[in-house]
Design goal:
Length: about 575
């Protein structure tokens, strides 16, 4: 199924539509947008300016975009503020105080480009002083808060706290540092500590953690002050690697791909590729290669595109994933930040100039460049650009510029509505059990991913089942898996948009989609045969009262998830009635 999450293919992150950008480095923390239909070249003076907003505060954090809103943080006097703008016109919706502002030191403030994390109807923000605040995304109302030092005994680097909370099921994974709660899982609704992984002598760094699978074990990978660590989803330390840590700051996000883990660091260290794996009960992070290089010290966001990696140096470089060999380096852009969308790299130079180029592993090919207006040309312009829903966002301290980079002559290619992450088999079984699936049922999985729910329904219950999936590769993979399971005569996989698909013959519908998405499907649900069941993983259907809610803790990752059961006709909640 489509698992709604921040958060790589194996990353459970915050829920978001595919073209949204709900957190630092995007929906799957890859720094690659799924956006399509964008301009290949810009006019001489740049793409059209859609709107301009001010009042964000003196800050360097990029924006997060989700649910029709744009979020960011900044300093306003002695306070850190979080501000929400309307995505359509940039008008301020709300602005609230998070806590006292830290006195950030010069260029080192660029280490902490801590964009807020959007978690459905919630927002998570962290300040350099250590305040962690959970807000209502709708109103900015504070729901709960923690302090990394006071509540969690965290230990910061010399440049303040920085964290990028990872939403993983019902949990939030954070990095306070310190001996006791080095990596910590919180209950995402209450903020209460679920587990902690203590690593003596460690302190929080400035790198975003990721979730990945190595040695057939799902784990969190984080680069802390003294080394890189793999930590199980139950909080157990699995392995560590200290070969590329800097005593000054570790800021580059790790990248997991094909059993390998790419990592980089500045301050004269470089980059390398690891292969974390286990043999029996022992873990080893094998070093496949390590290269010394002048990697950017405080601008860390390596990005994999196919079999290559883009990396900031004194300019922008392209590396071969398997060997680390530099295929090209463009120094004319200077020390820069960047993001990737629609096969193009959007680069922002130190002076504020923007560059557009196709992603080509063989050479740098400049397509366009222009310089947006700047409030203070003497300050570096290193806030990372963001591309979301056809627009390019450029933060310049208190000011945000939003450019329309859609190509009216290129139809926008449909992309999946969310990032796919495999649902654990025991959760799949519980969903089918809760829906009381029988042999005469017809099960539809809307956003079927690799087909596991469809195949399980047919194999376990002997019923007909249909998967609706937009991703062509996943559809083909599902068909192959069905043949392997010998249920190909009972199942069918349709490459289609779940909002346009005809599932009127369904007697059971399986969902793992955002509330905003399931709400749009209610008119179709209402047309289903009375007695048909809908089973929804993690997210309720807005405005509809469930018949039953069960909580499932998977043996695979020890994450607790709610599963909701509904029966047709749906029991609609009356507005204003709790």
């Amino acid at each position: 199924m489509f698992r709604i999450a921040l958060a790589v293919a194996l990353l459970s992150a915050s829920a978001a539509l595919a073209a949204d950008w709900p957190q630092w480095r995007g929906p799957d923390r890859s720094n690659v947008s799924k956006e399509t239909g964008l301009l290949d070249e810009w006019p001489k003076d740049g793409p059209p300016l859609a709107w301009k907003a001010t009042g964000l505060g003196d800050g360097v954090a990029p924006v997060s975009v989700a649910g029709g809103r744009v979020f960011t943080t900044g300093n306003a006097g002695d306070d850190v503020i979080c501000t929400a703008l309307a995505e359509k016109d940039g008008k301020q919706l709300w602005s609230v105080k998070l806590g006292p502002a830290a006195k950030e030191a010069g260029v080192m403030r660029w280490l902490a480009q801590a964009a807020p994390t959007v978690d459905g109807d919630r927002l998570h923000a962290v300040t350099a002083s250590g305040d962690y605040v959970c807000l209502s995304a709708d109103t900015g109302k504070e729901l709960w808060r923690k302090h990394f030092a006071k509540d969690l005994e965290g230990k910061k680097s010399g440049w303040g706290f920085c964290d990028y909370p990872l939403v993983d099921g019902d949990r939030l994974i954070i990095c306070p540092g310190g001996d006791k709660n080095t990596l910590t899982a919180l209950d995402r609704k209450t903020g209460e500590v679920v587990w902690s992984c203590p690593i003596k002598g460690e302190y929080a760094a400035h790198s975003a953690l990721i979730a990945a699978e190595f040695g057939k074990v799902r784990q969190y990978v984080v680069h802390l002050g003294r080394g890189m660590y793999g930590i199980s989803t139950k909080g157990e330390l699995l392995w560590k690697y200290t070969g590329l840590s800097s005593g000054t700051a570790n800021t580059h996000a790790p990248i997991a791909h094909d059993g390998g883990l790419f990592f980089a660091n500045g301050y004269g260290t470089g980059y390398g590729l690891l292969k974390p794996d286990r043999k029996d009960d022992s873990w080893l992070a094998e070093e496949l290669y390590r290269q010394k290089a002048a990697t950017a010290p405080w601008l860390g966001s390596p990005t994999r595109v196919g079999d290559h990696v883009l990396l900031t140096t004194s300019g922008l470089a392209c590396l071969d994933w398997k060997t680390g060999t530099v295929t090209w380096e463009e120094k004319k852009v200077g020390r820069c930040t960047y993001t990737v969308a629609d096969g193009k790299v959007f680069v922002r130079g130190q002076s504020g100039k923007l560059f557009l180029a196709p992603v080509d592993p063989k050479e740098w090919k400049l397509a366009s460049e222009f310089t947006p207006p700047r409030p203070d040309k003497g300050q570096p312009a290193w806030t990372y650009p963001v591309v979301a829903n056809g627009h390019l966002y450029i933060r310049d301290y208190d000011t945000l510029l939003c450019y329309d980079v859609r190509d009216p002559d290129r139809p926008k290619k449909k992309v999946p509505d969310a990032v796919f992450v495999p649902t654990p088999p025991d959760v799949v079984a519980k969903m089918l059990e809760l829906a009381a699936v029988k042999k005469d049922d017809v099960v539809y999985d809307l956003g079927s991913g690799d087909g596991r729910i469809v195949i399980a329904a047919a194999k376990t219950h002997g019923c007909q089942a249909v998967g609706v999936e937009l991703d062509k590769e996943l559809v083909e993979k599902s068909r192959d898996r069905a043949k392997e399971a010998k249920v190909e005569k009972l199942v069918m996989f349709e490459q289609d948009d779940l909002f346009e698909a005809d599932f009127s013959k369904a007697t059971v519908v399986a969902l793992y989609i955002l509330p905003t998405m399931s709400k749009k499907l209610i008119p179709k649900f209402d047309k289903l045969k009375p007695g048909s069941r809908i089973v929804s993983h993690c997210f309720p259907i807005p405005g509809v009262k469930p018949d039953k809610v069960v909580r499932v803790t998977s043996d695979e990752d020890d994450v607790e998830r709610p599963v909701y059961l509904y029966t047709i006709p749906l029991s609609k909640e009356k507005p204003g009635v709790p």
